[in-house]
Design a protein that fits this description.
This protein is mostly helical. It folds into two domains: 128 residues, no CATH class; 60 residues. It has eleven helices and three strands, in the order H-H-H-H-H-H-E-H-H-E-E-H-H-H. It has a three-stranded antiparallel sheet. The longest helix is centred in the C-terminal third of the chain and has 65 residues. The radius of gyration is 55 Å and the shape is elongated. The termini are far apart. 12% of the residues are buried.
Length: 246
């Protein structure tokens, strides 16, 4: 059963199988090499298998490729741009053509996503699946998540502070705008009232203006009559003086 699981396409997580009591009992039985092989597929790499190959069951070609896929996933968790030289060494492949074929196969199996940079001789990984986690690694993961949460809280606090400052600035600008608009409105009213008063003081009714032009101003007739009377008196006086002289 374990060999079938290790060879089956699409199965890259083995934690549930390892947690089965019947499987865990294999660790202390004559089938311990099979159990050890299962743990390598769950947590290890192809290099780990080669280091213990003498004490482990042989792998089929499909199992080798699957373990190599998982080894690439392990490398991708540490570095996103993996040089071809590192991959060739870790996967024990003979040439770049075999390496690229293996990576393309892993991409089609949805084990990872990325691109092969043939010019720079490296694999650029954008995404890779997660692997099984050892129990002793849980504390490290928990600590990492706690640190991440604390970092998120710090960032969130900073964002809230910036939002608060932005709102205060917005309120100040709105208050200033309202004040300016109020002052402009009052100034317009003042200018309008002043202009209307000046226009009322300087403007006249056209008919009244023509009448004033036709009719003399009060006292003008009296002054003209006085001038005529004075002139007549002057003429009479002159006549008397002329008669006496004769």
């Amino acid at each position: 059963l374990i060999h079938q699981v290790l060879e089956a396409p699409g199965i890259y997580v083995f934690g549930e199988l390892l947690d089965m009591p019947a499987v865990r009992e294999l660790a202390d039985s004559e089938f311990s090499p099979v159990f050890r092989l299962l743990t390598i597929f769950a947590y290890g790499t192809y290099a780990d298998y080669l280091a213990e190959a003498a004490n482990l069951p042989p792998l089929t070609e499909a199992q080798k490729n699957k373990l190599r896929h998982l080894s690439v996933v392990t490398l991708a968790a540490k570095i996103k741009c993996i040089p071809y030289s590192v991959l060739l060494e870790q996967l024990q492949l003979k040439n770049v053509r075999q390496l690229e074929d293996l990576v393309i196969e892993a991409v089609y199996a949805d084990v990872l996503r990325g691109s092969l940079d043939q010019r720079n001789q490296r694999l650029e990984v954008d995404y890779s699946i997660g692997r099984d986690i050892r129990r002793e690694e849980l504390s490290t993961i928990t600590r990492t998540l706690q640190e991440w949460c604390q970092g998120c809280e710090v960032v969130l606090s900073g964002i809230e502070e910036q939002v608060s400052r932005a709102n205060q600035h917005k309120e100040q600008q709105l208050a200033l705008k309202q004040q300016i608009e109020s002052e402009v409105a009052n100034l317009k009213k003042t200018i309008k009232v002043t202009t209307a008063a000046a226009a009322a003081a300087t403007s006249q009714d056209p008919e009244q203006h023509l009448t004033e032009l036709r009719e003399p101003a009060p006292g003008t007739n009296q002054r003209q009559a006085s001038k005529k009377t004075s002139k007549a008196k002057g003429l009479r006086g002159s006549a008397k003086i002329w008669s006496k002289s004769n």
